[in-house]
Design brief:
36% strand, alpha+beta, 6-stranded antiparallel beta sheet, elongated
């Protein structure tokens, strides 16, 4: 809880900084421990149904994430071939994702390089479908597109990864 609270304080400070008229360049360090604690304690309600125990590992310019996914709650098998390896899986399975964050002044784009469901390598297109289907809403009927570029929150200009931590440049 202490690590989640630490990141919450940093985010509050960043929000306050965003409102300042004169802002000097600054770097804020976010550790893996803070991020994982925050994700699993503070953002648990915001995660799609069926996703739990998320752990992010930061390496030099690379990210890896693991988590539990309840395939029955996400219903990703709908419309897939009965010959697909996914048709053999059900219930909670471990998911592993690996990739890089591509950066352009204030914007990012996630480039997924590795996906595994229960140790089975899976094409990135399956992950794209899983995320899109589990994030559909009335306001966003297509769901979230993991390939779409996005603006960094809190006016972050650049994100750099080092083993065990992220450096947020403002």
């Amino acid at each position: 809880i202490t690590a989640a609270a630490s990141l919450a304080r940093k985010l509050t400070s960043i929000e306050a900084r965003k409102r300042e008229k004169t802002r000097k360049p600054e770097t804020v360090v976010v550790t893996e421990h803070e991020l994982n604690s925050y994700l699993n304690l503070k953002l648990k309600e915001d995660m799609p149904t069926g996703i739990s125990d998320v752990q992010v590992s930061m390496q030099r310019e690379r990210l890896q994430a693991t988590g539990q996914v309840d395939l029955d709650k996400l219903d990703i098998k709908k419309g897939s071939s009965p010959f697909s390896p996914l048709s053999l899986l059900s219930g909670k399975v471990l998911v592993l994702l690996g990739g890089r964050l591509q950066r352009l002044d204030g914007f990012g784009n996630v480039q997924i390089e590795e996906v595994q469901l229960a140790t089975i390598p899976v094409p990135v297109s399956v992950l794209e479908r899983l995320i899109a289907s589990s994030t559909r809403t009335e306001r966003n009927p297509e769901g979230f597109d993991i390939n779409a570029p996005f603006r960094f929150p809190y006016s972050v200009k650049r994100v750099r990864f080092e083993p065990g931590r992220a450096l947020l440049d403002f």
